[in-house]
Design goal:
This protein has one domain: Alpha/beta knot, CATH 3.40.1280. Helix content is 42%, strand content 21%. It contains five helices and five strands. It has a five-stranded parallel beta sheet with strand order 2-1-4-3-5. Helix 1 links the parallel strand 1 and strand 2. The longest helix has 17 residues. The chain starts with a strand and ends in a 7-residue tail after the last helix.
């Protein structure tokens, strides 16, 4: 199974870029991972929130294939322990999914068209994180999933 992470905007903070590099390299040991950081919508600051979300949704939807299983990250999404998250992954892999896609939206979240296209909405924490920081947290959790599924020492 291939995993694709698509996020709106670039990772700007050097410490986040460095952390992402570390985890993306570790994940390669287990699966193929594509990490796409999309260009932000032009003149985003001058657009009404709903229009911005619609424009971002179009950009996301253009990157998806009909066969992709899509999980959107949202602060109101279902929360898991790491072991539960690993079990979710295992279930998806057992179904023979070829590409699992995680979407990380912009500052205002997602348009309803993305919610309709997604098979699942998850939250990584009840705390609020920047959409840039959540990238690192997701990468770490994906790595943790594979160490759990492979019974490795990383997860205690």
């Amino acid at each position: 199974m291939k995993i694709t992470v698509i996020s709106m905007g670039k990772t700007k903070e050097p410490f986040l870029k460095e952390g992402l590099t570390v985890y993306l390299e570790k994940i390669k040991r287990y699966t193929s991972l594509v990490w796409l950081e999309l260009d932000e919508v032009k003149n985003a600051a001058s657009l009404p929130k709903e229009e911005l979300k619609r424009k971002e949704a179009k950009i996301f939807l253009d990157k998806l294939k009909d066969t992709d299983i899509v999980i959107m990250l949202d602060e109101r999404g279902e929360e898991f322990t790491s072991v539960q998250f690993a079990n979710e992954f295992q279930g998806i892999m057992n179904r023979g999914v070829s590409n699992l896609v995680f979407l990380i939206g912009g500052a205002f979240g997602f348009d309803e068209t993305i919610e309709k296209r997604s098979q699942k909405k998850i939250g990584l924490s009840r705390l609020t994180f920047t959409h840039q920081m959540i990238r690192l947290l997701l990468a770490e959790q994906i790595y943790r999933v594979f160490t759990i599924l492979n019974h490795e020492k990383y997860h205690h």
